[in-house]
From TrEMBL:
Enzyme class: oxidoreductase
The protein's name: Peroxidase
GO terms classed as biological process: hydrogen peroxide catabolic process; response to oxidative stress; rhythmic process
Membrane-crossing segments per the record: 12-33, 53-75
Residues that, per the record, bind Ca(2+) 2: 302, 305, 310
Amino acid sequence: MHCTAPPEPLFLLFQAILIGFCTPTQLSIYIYIGFLIPLFHTQFPIDTTNTPTYMASTITISNLSNICLLLLLLLHFNFGKSQLEVNYYSRSCPKAEEIIKEQVTQLYNKHGNTAVSWVRNLFHDCMVKSCDASLLLETVRDGSVMSEQASERSFGMRNFKYVSTIKAAVEKECPLTVSCADIVALSARDAIALLGGPSIEMKTGRKDSKGSYAREVEELIPNHNDSISLVLSRFQAIGIDVEATVALLGAHSVGRVHCKNLVQRLYPTVDSTLDPAHAEYLKRRCPTPNPDPKAVLYSRNDLKTPMIIDNNYYKNILEHKGLLTVDEELANDPRTAPYVQNMANDNDYFHQHFSRAILLLSQTNPLTGDQGEIRKDCRYLNAN
Ligand code: HEM
Ligand SMILES: *[C@@H]1O[C@H](CO)[C@@H](O)[C@H](O)[C@H]1NC(C)=O
């Protein structure tokens, strides 16, 4: 976990001076609280800003003379780590968010499915360690980088070349300033709004990874035929609760699934949980059990509103028209079914939880401060 940034020299200096002034009791309290702090960071990786004030005020009320303890704690929070912020680029590149939105909109107007790709990119990038643009790295011949995109889990992912279009526009305005990781996050945010989803205020300040994690992809991103239990545990592992997981899967209200990822529910026998009429439709879309991997054979996720992030997904899965195993199980598992019902009943409720869940996903364990780098070309590590 990249919970705490490496201590800065200034921090260490102040801390050393302060420690000299503290009584042994005060020091042991500081050390004790120091053990608790990482727990806060792991559970709420983003909102640590609220913690120091809360803790500090409790301490001030209980014992005003503990000034040195108070100072130590404040130092710990203010110097010990950097984090994501709203409008992180307001000084270094004030137009960054505007430029990204403009590019995402232009691309959407030309190729609507780019927006769908940005949503899936966020998932595939953030699930693997952190939202750090590791997904965008291409394989390098000398073997130093193996692309996550080559994994079977990335099957069907597309439009990566247009990430370069967005990055180029941002680089033109502010060279080497805006990370590819923030482009992944903000392009997903803007895409969601274009696809009729909620408008989300997103923090920035992510840094890019210095490598890809191709070997971890299959462990971290669930497969098309994985169970809801496995999916819940994967999300829980990165601090995403059951209701947020249900909301995130609402992304399957847009886009498509290739026959390759469907046929095991159709052949040799039709999965009995699948609506029979829908199964017939899917067999027409995917007429053979072994689809030619080169042929682009697929079904859309949501036949009624295929390009809108709405609660039609939940209505579909309640009618057993979900395409993936996880879609079907989501509607029937006792842990998730009540949320599915609520989201099917109320689109605003779905959007509210979708926003919350996208924020949780996008703030997973970010690289910040002097961790990572800001890539010049999202496809390659900076030369050094
Ligand atoms: C956790 C369980 C999930 C599984 C097992 C899963 C699996 C899949 C699979 C197999 C496809 C079809 C790929 C293809 O054949 O082309 C797909 C498509 C898609 N997924 Fe998921 N996914 C999951 C969660 C998510 C989440 C959390 C998001 C985003 C928040 C997401 C966004 C998308 C999008 C937008 C598409 C359509 C892509 C396109 O049409 O280009 N998925 N997913
Ligand atoms: C899921 O599908 C893959 C092929 O895509 C197969 O290798 C694997 O055994 C399947 N797993 C389960 C749990 O059915």
